[in-house]
Amino acid sequence: MRRSFPGTRSTPFDFALLYGTRKGQLARTLRRFVDLDGGVIEWPKSECKARKPHKLPLEGEGFAIVERAMANARPWCPYLFHGRDCAPGRKPESMSKRYGCLGNLRVAFQKACRGAGIPSGRASGGVVFHSTRSTCATNLRAAGLGEDDCMRVGGWRTREVFQRYNLTDVDQLRERLAAARTQATVVRLADKRKAKRAKG
Prior knowledge:
Oligomer: single chain
Strand order of the largest sheet: 1-2-3
Strand content: 5-15%
CATH superfamily of the largest domain: Intergrase catalytic core
Radius of gyration: 22 Å
CATH architecture of the largest domain: Orthogonal Bundle
Largest sheet: 3 strands, antiparallel
Shape: elongated
Number of helices: 8
CATH topology of the largest domain: hpI Integrase, Chain A
Distance between the termini: 61 Å
Number of strands: 3
CATH class of the largest domain: Mainly Alpha
């Protein structure tokens, strides 16, 4: 799916898969929120749904994404990520208040889904950009990161909300499901044998 994104617009998607950052918060990231020397992005509370500052440590691929974006800084634009209409002289009022210079990404996301053969949109039961939060939560937990740390990374406020996003280890869940179905079959067969003996 990454390869199906037009141009460099897969970059915010890649970042969201790694950290589960909400689309609006990610799109509105200003370069001044980034501290490359410290290896962190710190969003002020005004940019976060939880209305609390969100400090995210960067590492590996995530750090590389931000480092490249900072190297691609455009003097006329304060944002970390840029949309296709980013150009000198662009008026601030022409930018989305919710999604900054980057824009909504809905069309680019839908094209990427079509290119990958994946259904998109809630109406059709497909994926949406927000699905990256579930992917991130599941991947981090499967990798062994504790729930508290996962919540700090993705900015989840409560454990109950985080659990809705965390699909746990799907392969292990499949194994437990298969084992439960097998056990249920054994129980049903045993009940049938008991009933047959009772009749006889």
